[in-house]
Give the backbone structure.
Amino acid sequence: MIWLTWRQMRAQTLWTAGLVAAVAAYLLYLGTDIRGAYRTDITDCTARCDDAAHAFGDQFGSSLLMIGLLLLAGPALIGAFWGAPLITRELENGTHRLVWNQSVTRKRWLAVKLVVVGGVAVLFTGVLSLLLTWAASPYDKLIDSRFEPLTFAARDLAPFGYALLAFTLGLVVGVLARKTLVAMAVTLLVFVAFQLLMANVLRPHFAEPVTETIAWADANTVGQIDSFGTGPQGTGIQEYDISGAWVMSDYIVVHKGDGTEFTETDLDACDVQGDNPDDCMIAHDATFDVTYQPADRYWTFQRIELATAVGLAALLAGIAFWRIPRGLN
Amino acid sequence: MNTPVLTAHALTKRYGTHPALTEATLDIPAGRIVGLVGPNGAGKSTLLALAAGLIRPTSGHIEVLGRKPAADAEQLARVGFVAQDTPVYAGLSVADHLKLGEHLNPTWDKQFAADRIKQIGLDPAKQAGRLSGGQRAQLALTIAAAKRPELLIFDEPVAALDPLARRAFLQNLMEFVAEIDVSVILSSHLISDVERVCDHLIILAESRVQVAGEIDDLTAGHYRLVAPRGTLTDLPDGVDLIAADHTDRQTTLIVHNTNPTPLAISGAEPIGLEDMVLTYLHRAEGTTAPTLEETRA
């Protein structure tokens, strides 16, 4: 059975292996390049280091983002082009009636396909994920926002789970839809929807976020205020960054010492005084609440992300194992 | 080999509300070449797919060689199945298919497979997708036979073949069935195919088994009775009326004598296999049962 599975997937595997090898080679080159630049621009920096750091970020940001996007799209493509046709192609050509009548049970047939083809899919994606994680690590250390959705899902463990899930999803959709093109389209749609759901709805709730009240005096030591002022949502902090953490609140209301909101009028008054605005804020005993997932939860979140994908994949595989012995005609 | 090849009790398969096979009850002894005849859509493929375990019955029971079809690898090894249109992997070569058979069947007879491929004259390096219909059927047959099953099932193996290839295929089938001692069930919508190779017959029409039995018994048990109209008003016990045709002057009946003794009615003449089959198929199409005395308005 392993021989047949390999024989059937040989062409597509070699073809994909070529692509993976090309990307891997590029990542090796990029990783080396990044390390060299990090040494000269950051480690050995003596003057105008902020500018150098900016230049470093600009230089490699887009390349890493592109590969990251590829790693996000990869599982979806694996689901559509490897998973979905795996069973539908047999059904469309009627060859399931040939192979199901050899002395191999359909459960074993399915198990081998799942493990061998799924295994190769996970392996390919995993190799790229680890290489990208390695290549990007100096950059990621500098930027320090590993929870960034496009970064988080394309580093470390997450891509392993996604590859497994997308592949299994494609296979099961194929079993249910029985038509290759329909299965491919549905797989793509469902998987992309899942990725969006994961990043926007599920991942923020992997753990109860921490809410911390920060005094204005500490505002730029705990984290960093991106901008503070009056915008369409009112007067408040527009974006607050905490190093390595995932800040959930994107608009933050500031309170004065007496508990009332810090308003536009207060802000104007501070401006008119002409003093250092921060001193004015501190004089008001200004505080604000920030809700965030602390930086040290990164690996917990990676593991939960992986476990969620693996769990769903197992569930889907269960459907296939339930369905296929019952016949598909 | 005394276990019946196939037993079915009230075997029913429905797709939604559409009945594909209705209450089939069968008992096929071992060592036979069984022909399954009926028009397209009669339920032949459904019955064979149930026997091969490709699908599960909606209700009723079926056992093949004394066990549930496709129950495990061992049971799968005992039954060879060649599906309609003889599917093969288009991208794999003939040699790959033999390798497939070898890897997937512990009972694979490598020598037999190699000999057959040589005998049919198939090029092992040729891609299966480039074979002619006849060659493809031969390849599928070889794969099914080389696993040395106790029962071989063919679903319309010759339907796609031209008359010459069909004859050659059936001839070849007969030869190796004798060679490897295997029971066979094959379906066809052509009575002549069945007449040539089978010794047991199942007639299927409108999703129901019309009649089943040894061909010799069936042909010996079916008669045509011709008599002046009005004189045939009663049939002996055990004689079933299959069809009745009344003209103004005479009545023609086709009857099935289920008694062990020959039918003792003057004017009864045996009918051939083809007439018998056609009578059953015709009856299945009709909505009303035949009557001895047709009442006319």
In short: Residues 70 and 76 of chain B are 5 Å apart (CA to CA). Chain B is about 30% helix and 30% strand.
